[in-house]
Amino acid sequence: MRVAAAVTALLFLLVACGTGDSGLVPAPTGPVSTVAETTEHNPIDVMFLQMAVAHHKTGIEIVRLAKDKSVRTDVKTLASAIEVTQLSEVDSMLQWLHDWNQPESPGTEAQLHANHGGDHSTSPEAIATLAATGPGEFERAFLNLLIAHQHNAVEIAKFEREGGVNPQSKALAERIFQSRTGQISQMLGYLD
Description:
- This protein has 192 residues and is mostly helical.
- The protein has a single domain (2-17, 42-191), classed as Ferritin (Up-down Bundle).
- Helix content is 69%, strand content 0%.
- Helix 2 runs antiparallel to helix 3.
- The chain is elongated and about 50 Å long.
- The protein starts with a helix and ends with a helix.
- The model is unreliable at 1-32 and 109-117 (pLDDT under 50).
């Protein structure tokens, strides 16, 4: 139900802001997921969700920086859409972890990333540097940081696609892979 409300809010946001010829990646249509819910999962599903929750929360922090900065309307609209989507995805992931009796995080950063391709997070220092960036340079710095951040989301999604067993988690990984790849392409176009 939360996912349906978030998709409705996202569609409303995109319509209210107007998409015109802005080149925005189109919002998904139809049902969010037709995957039957199950609690079957393996350690990779759990690790994916734990990594993705932390990564999404950082992404939300990044996109919120564009709200009060001087960026073009298309960039502001994309940032708002990313925030809505990732908030909804975090809700779903936390619910699945709860349903599986798993913690939001496995513990220390070393445990979180051991044997899973390294740290896929954006550092607090990089976010602080972006927040302090002047108006003439902010948009380019924002897009570059967000492109790198979303690339890391694609890498995390690949981890789940290759080894997870939970159908909902795998479907989410596929949506993340597709949507973040589209966002990266869109943002690279903004940098031209």
